[in-house]
């Protein structure tokens, strides 16, 4: 698995105490190096047109100008400093170039993207990296159907919004229930609209849900849907904030859980791009990234018992209108 990273990602920083700070990617790169993974590909700078594949040009202009002026906050959580426009563009470029490369890649990028909608940055996200990569794959004829699997603790409201009416991009998110966590969206009844009806799949989990609940979701919902959709390319919005020791959510995934998630990816699509989203425990983020990379590459089957709940049965019923589950 190839690694994409740029030291320039460290430049997006206003407040060192903000949870989404440069140490996140620095820790990942250092940990991978300690495990013998020291080569990475630096993404090339691209022009702003790639952003306009999914974002409103007025929003792109706004970010460019506001950032140049050293403008501070897009919302109470999301900051811009003077170089943030070009670094956010490079974050999107990294994921896009990794996806277009045709190789399986893990992208150590920031700022993250899955909360960014067509015309608004929020929740630490400026541009929607994974959405831009998905649209690029389709635009360049490299994929006819793209699946996005988002296992960040938070619902990727931006990605959902961008592809809500599309049948060629399937969005599947497992996240902490929106009644108990930002951004408050991602309920099972949000299934997509028009031609996109059925191509948005939301699996909200209650606080405290861990590996066994996730393994049930993978086996009973995510894998069967991937099999039926049969994507040409899978993009993963890889957040580590659902780990039991990440203070930002109340989910309880373990390191073994992440290895299990990664071990299932090859069953879903012939090509895989994993992009970083959240994950704020600096002592864990490197190790968990390594677990995903090694779990993906390992041939060892990871067995985790399944925990079925009434709510998950209800979610399956909602989704059964579109998929045979
Ligand atoms: Zn998150």
Sequence-ordered SSE layout with sheet pairings:
Elements: E1 2-4, H1 23-34, H2 57-68, E2 73-75, E3 78-79, H3 84-100, E4 105-107, H4 129-139, E5 146-150, H5 157-162, E6 169-176, E7 200-205, H6 211-229, E8 233-238, H7 255-264, E9 272-276, H8 285-297, H9 310-319
Helix pairs in contact: 1-8, 3-4, 6-7, 7-8
Q: Can you give a write-up of this model?
A:
- The chain is of the alpha/beta class and 325 residues long.
- It has a single domain (2-319), classed as Histone deacetylase domain (Arginase, Chain A), CATH 3.40.800.20.
- Helix content is 34%, strand content 13%.
- It has nine helices and nine strands.
- The strands form two sheets. A seven-stranded parallel beta sheet has the order 1-4-9-8-5-6-7, with helices on both faces.
- A hairpin with a 2-residue loop joins strand 2 and strand 3.
- Helix 3 (84-100) packs across helix 4 (129-139).
- The longest helix is centred in the C-terminal third of the chain and has 19 residues, at 211-229.
- The radius of gyration is 18 Å and the shape is globular.
- 53% of the residues are buried.
- Bound molecules: zinc ion (ZN).
- Zinc ion binds at residues 152-154, 239, 241, 277-278.
Examine the secondary-structure arrangement and name the CATH architecture.
3-Layer(aba) Sandwich
CATH class: Alpha Beta
Bound molecules: zinc ion
Helix content: 25-40%
Instruction: From the alpha carbons, calculate the radius of gyration and give it in angstroms.
Output: 18 Å
**The CATH H-level homologous superfamily:** Histone deacetylase domain
Cα(first) to Cα(last) distance is 31 Å
Mean pLDDT: 96
Strand order of the largest sheet: 1-4-9-8-5-6-7
């Amino acid at each position: 698995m190839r690694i994409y990273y740029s030291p320039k990602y460290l430049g997006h920083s206003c407040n060192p105490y903000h949870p989404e700070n440069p140490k996140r990617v620095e820790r990942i790169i250092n940990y991978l190096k300690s495990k013998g993974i020291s080569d990475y590909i630096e993404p090339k700078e691209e022009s702003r047109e790639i952003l306009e594949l999914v974002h409103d040009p007025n929003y792109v202009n706004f970010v460019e100008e506001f950032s140049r002026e050293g403008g501070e906050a897009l919302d109470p959580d999301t900051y811009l400093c003077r170089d943030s426009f070009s670094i956010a563009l490079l974050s999107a470029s990294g994921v896009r170039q990794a996806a277009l490369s045709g190789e399986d890649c893990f992208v150590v990028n920031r700022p993250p993207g899955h909360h960014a909608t067509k015309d608004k940055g929020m929740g630490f996200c400026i541009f929607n990296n994974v959405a831009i990569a998905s649209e690029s794959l389709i635009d360049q004829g490299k994929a006819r159907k793209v699946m996005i699997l988002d296992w960040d603790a938070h619902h990727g409201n931006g990605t959902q919004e961008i592809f809500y009416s599309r049948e060629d991009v399937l969005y599947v998110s497992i996240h902490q229930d929106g009644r108990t966590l930002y951004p408050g969206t991602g309920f099972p009844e949000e299934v997509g609209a028009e031609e996109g009806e059925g191509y948005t799949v939301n699996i909200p989990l209650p606080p405290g849900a861990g590996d066994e609940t996730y393994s049930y979701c993978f086996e009973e919902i995510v894998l069967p849907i991937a099999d039926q959709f049969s994507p040409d390319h899978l993009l993963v919005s890889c957040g580590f904030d659902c780990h039991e020791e990440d203070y930002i959510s109340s989910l309880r995934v373990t390191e073994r859980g992440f290895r299990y998630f990664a071990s299932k990816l090859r069953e879903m699509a012939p090509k895989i791009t994993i992009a970083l989203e959240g994950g704020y425990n600096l002592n864990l983020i490197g190790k968990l990234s390594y677990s995903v990379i090694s779990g993906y590459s390992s041939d060892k089957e990871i067995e985790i018992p399944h925990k079925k709940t009434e709510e998950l049965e209800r979610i399956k019923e909602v989704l059964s209108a579109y998929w045979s589950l």
